[in-house]
Fold this sequence. Notes:
Elements: H1 2-10, E1 16-17, E2 20-21, E3 24-31, E4 34-40, E5 46-53, E6 57-63, E7 69-70, E8 74-75, H2 77-81, H3 91-105, E9 109-112, E10 117-121
Antiparallel strand pairs: 1-2, 1-9, 3-6, 4-5, 7-8, 9-10
Amino acid sequence: MIREAISIIYGSSRASIGELVVDAFISESHSFSAEISEHPVESGESIVDHVRNLPITLTIDGLITNTPMNLIGLTAFDSAKRFINKESKDFSAMAFEKIEKLFQERKPLTICTSLKDYRNMVLENLSIERGGRGL
């Protein structure tokens, strides 16, 4: 029931972090900032002579489930079949390993959000929460 509600609200996901496809980004924060050089003068005024853009930062709250949402919000039957084998890990466990590896590698990657694809991004902070939000 919850998965279907999220599917209706967020629609078809193209959210991804590197090669890891995310079911949905629940929230995205795109931060753009700049550093301004100021030089105070005797009169108390400041002279601004340069503005430098700082790196763009993204803060993402995402959702990865064991029944990936795709095909316009519906679970793909092919992806559901792989969970029948009891010996294989569930999808969320595999996703955890994949994103942990991406973090440890410290290599630039592409992050695709609903607004823009960002190339050459590096994961600076990674926090994984499991359960506890009523989902």
